[in-house]
Amino acid sequence: MPILHKHLCRAAPLLVALTLAACGGSHHDDDGTPPPPPTVSQPPATAEVPPGASASVSGFIAYLVALLGAAADQLEPVDTSTLVAPVDDHAEPVSVN
After folding, report:
1. pLDDT over 80 (residue 35)
2. Is 46 helix (H, G, I), strand (E, B) or coil?
3. Which residues does 86 contact at the CB level (< 8 Å), separation at least 6?
4. Which of 18, 23, 26, 93 has its CA 20 to 30 A from that of 78?
């Protein structure tokens, strides 16, 4: 009987470990709803000049409107050395509100 007891004492921890490993939870939540898309935060208007600001008049105006709406006194200055105001000689003038 001591040999059987010895084998059971050795096998019991292995059996417990296998049982606990089999009961491990799954990270798969299948409630039918897809996960939400990741949010993309827009950098502040003074963080950088967007490429579209030099590409078209409407992009330039959109950048100026974003600058006007930003709390520029609380943000870092932006390097505008690469910004070239686009010109369109054939389009009608656009009002900036």
Report:
1. no
2. coil
3. 54, 55, 56, 57, 59, 60
4. 93
Q: How far is CA 32 from CA 28, 35, 55, in A?
A: 11, 10, 43
Give yes or no for a contact between 45 and 67, defined as CB atoms under 8 angstroms apart: yes
- Residue 49: give the domain boundaries: 44-76
Establish if 59 belongs to a structural domain: yes
For 44-72, what is each residue's pLDDT tens digit?
666 788 888 888 888 888 888 888 887 76
pTM score over 0.90: no
- Rounded to the nearest angstrom, the gap between the alpha carbon of residue 5 and the centroid of all alpha carbons in its chain is 58
Question: How many domains does the structure of the chain reveal?
Answer: 1
Q: Does some domain include residue 31?
A: no
Q: Which two tokens stand for residue 59?
A: 């992009």
Q: Would residue 57 count as lying in a domain?
A: yes
User: Both tokens of residue 3?
Assistant: 């040999």
Coarse DSSP helix, strand, coil percentages of the chain, rounded to the nearest 5 percent: 40, 0, 60
